[in-house]
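User: I'm putting together a teaching handout on how sequence relates to shape, and I'd like one worked example. Could you take CoA-binding domain-containing protein from Paracoccus solventivorans, show the sequence you're using, and then write out its predicted structure as tokens right after it?

Assistant: Happy to. First the sequence, then the structure tokens directly below it.
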Amino acid sequence: MTQPDIARIAAETRSIAVVGLSPKPDRPSHEVAHYLQKLGYRIIPINPGHAGESILGETTYAALSDIPAGTEVDMVDIFRRSESVPELVDEALAALPGLKTIWMQMGVMHEGAAEKARAAGKTVVQNRCPKVEFPRVGATGPAR
């Protein structure tokens, strides 16, 4: 993944489903999602243990497939173990027609699932964090 690729993702993305988003402010998922929200991205929390609750002012869904039809989701940011990725990629590909990017957080990688997503025309980022990568490319939020 090149710096221009990251810059393109940052500019083209407007809404991000964050899988594994914790309501606890001291958790990395919450910190990253809050950062992205402050940049102007819409955050869609995915956490089955908190479905129906509000995290960062947004309704939390149990699964990607629970996001209401017609809701724009450009990127899925995965804060789950690597072994969970294939199922999440399958669900994202089936449930999110406008999806452009699958992003796997630091320490999260699954080459088989990544290849499947790429074959479906999606951009895939593995083992990286947008809170680290976006500032490196000077990203200031979604292109307007």
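A couple of points you could highlight for students: The longest strand covers residues 15-19. Strands lie at 15-19, 42-46, 54-55, 58-59, 75-78, 101-104, 123-125.
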